[in-house]
């Protein structure tokens, strides 16, 4: 079975964040880092070349595929700040309505700027997702 390309690395999270050219995006990343550290109680780690992840959990699909992934994470992509909400969003409709301006994918939350959202709601969303992952992992 093929191994995931995105793996934890020893690269410096600080250097990665300091290297973000856009001041607003760099500031937003630092704010997200504080929230994720508070919620996960974990230190940030680079996963691949552009994802900052917190914590780890083991997963195993019905197909037999298994692996390790971060519990919560983010990446400052060109179009938006992408937050990885590993539990998905199905259970959080009420929170999502209160969050502010955003879009979503299966487990990705896309935000242009943190000024567009309610940070208290974001923290609660991350908290609920992390607890869900902790309860669900083998």
Give a concise summary:
The chain has helices spanning 13-18, 23-40, 93-99, 119-136, and strands at 44-47, 51-54, 57-60, 66-69, 72-76, 81-85, 103-104, 108-111. With 138 residues, it is of the alpha+beta class.
Strand order of the largest sheet: 1-2-5-6-8-7
Q: What is the annotated CATH architecture?
A: Alpha-Beta Complex
Number of domains: 1
The span between the termini is: 20 Å
| Spatial shape | globular
Under CATH, the topology is which? Aspartate Aminotransferase, domain 1
Q: Which structural class do the helices and strands define? A: alpha+beta
Chain-averaged pLDDT: 92
Layout of secondary structure:
Blueprint: H1 13-18, H2 23-40, E1 44-47, E2 51-54, E3 57-60, E4 66-69, E5 72-76, E6 81-85, H3 93-99, E7 103-104, E8 108-111, H4 119-136
Antiparallel strand pairs: 1-2, 2-5, 3-4, 5-6, 6-8, 7-8
């Amino acid at each position: 079975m093929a191994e995931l390309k995105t793996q934890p690395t020893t690269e410096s999270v600080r250097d990665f964040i300091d290297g973000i050219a856009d001041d607003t995006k760099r500031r937003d990343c630092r704010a997200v880092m504080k929230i994720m550290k508070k919620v996960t109680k974990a230190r940030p780690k680079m996963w691949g070349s552009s994802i900052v992840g917190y914590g780890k959990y083991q997963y195993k699909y019905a197909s037999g595929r298994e692996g390790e992934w971060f519990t919560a994470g983010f990446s400052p992509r060109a179009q938006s700040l992408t937050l990885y909400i590993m539990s998905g969003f199905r259970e959080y409709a009420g929170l999502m309505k209160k969050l502010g301006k955003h879009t979503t994918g299966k487990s990705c939350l896309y935000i242009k700027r943190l000024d567009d959202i309610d940070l208290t709601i974001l923290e609660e969303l991350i908290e609920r997702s992390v607890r869900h992952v902790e309860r669900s992992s083998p």
